[in-house]
Design goal:
Blueprint (H helix, E strand, L loop, with lengths): L15 E4 L5 H12 L3 E6 L2 H14 L4 E6 L5 H14 L5 E4 L18 H16 L1 H5 L5 E5 L22 H26 L4 E5 L4 E2 L1 H4 L7 H13 L1 E2 H4 L1 H8 L8 E4 L9 E3 L9 H15 L3 H7 L1
Parallel strand pairs: 1-2, 1-4, 2-3, 4-5, 5-6, 6-9, 7-8
Antiparallel strand pairs: 9-10
Length: 312
């Protein structure tokens, strides 16, 4: 697996793919490669102008690409429901869902329009609701796959069920780590529940290591000693957005990606390098916490996998 490249991606002709946060960074790179492999790719994002530019950029490289852009704000349950409704009206099935979009370490606490802490709401709860709403289309695919983007930050994460939305105490990185731990726990729990309920899904997680993306560039600018040191070391310990997308692409397309697997760069501390199995911290394997988080997510979003599966 250590020599895996995009050249190993099989033809995706006829496959329908949705990539969230695909107007830049990792999502754009992921969508670019999937479109080049022949998939029908739907890019989603909040900035429609950036979406159109992303379409133009992909078409410049792949003139025959089958791509479209759809507005989707993962910080809005209404936007998620509207997108899922439009998708269902135009597509019978969904072969691949890449839950990529995210925000990182917002300096001040913000809320989504539904009252969720912004990082938890955008990075995790929005993707939970989106995946559930797209479950009928996923189940109609021959081999449906969902890829959740986690992060090395999950290693420092903990789910604070007593203050899930950081209303009493907000720390930017702590909230980010919690959201990325939640994404990994979601991927693992979704696989377990799919097996138990017979949904037929393959749920996989991935992380990009230290990839140079807009998410990093637009993160909190503290100008601390740690941040200045990080800028000096960046050329040695980081990789491009295209390289950072490789674990996602492996998880999304490789027949060797295992259900419930987790993939990232295989270099030092998983910061850079070709894709390989990634380390899962013990808190991400906590079955009791995963079940509580699942139930809390259904209650908060008003979206239930079981109810949607039963109604499909």
């Amino acid at each position: 697996m250590t020599d895996w490249t995009t050249a190993d991606i099989p033809s995706l002709s006829g496959k329908t793919v949705v990539v969230t946060g695909a107007t830049g960074g990792l999502g754009y790179g992921t969508a670019m490669v999937l479109a080049g492999a022949g998939a029908i790719v739907i890019l989603t994002g909040r900035d429609d102008a950036k979406g159109l530019r992303a379409i133009e950029g992909i078409c410049e490289r792949f003139p025959d690409a089958l791509i479209a852009y759809e507005h989707l704000d993962l910080a809005s349950l209404a936007s998620i429901a509207n997108f899922a409704g439009r998708f269902a009206a135009e597509n019978e099935r969904l072969d691949l869902l890449v839950n990529n979009a995210g925000v990182m370490a917002l300096p001040k606490r913000q809320q989504t329009e539904d009252g969720f802490e912004m990082q938890l709401g955008t990075n995790y709860l929005g993707h939970y609701a989106l995946t559930a709403r797209l479950l009928p289309q996923l189940r109609r695919a021959r081999a449906p796959r969902i890829v959740n983007l986690s992060s090395l930050a999950h290693r420092s994460g903990a789910i604070n069920f007593d203050d899930l939305h950081s209303k009493h105490s907000y720390r930017p990185w702590r909230a980010y780590c919690q959201s990325k731990l939640a994404m990994l726990m979601f991927a693992l729990e979704l696989q377990r529940r799919s097996l138990a309920a017979g949904w037929g899904l393959t749920s996989v997680a991935a992380h990009p290591g230290y990839a140079r993306t807009d998410l990093i560039a637009n993160g909190p600018g503290t100008n601390s000693v740690q941040e200045r040191l990080g800028r000096l070391l960046q050329p040695l310990i980081s990789q491009s957005a295209a390289e950072g997308a490789l674990p996602t692409l492996f998880a999304a397309t490789s027949p060797d990606a295992e259900p419930g697997g987790y993939y990232g760069p295989n270099g030092f501390y998983e910061l850079k390098g070709p894709p390989g199995p990634a380390r899962i911290m013990p808190q991400a394997k906590d079955l009791a916490a995963a079940a509580i988080l699942w139930d809390a997510s259904a209650a908060l979003t008003g979206v239930s996998f079981d109810e949607i599966a039963a109604a499909a």
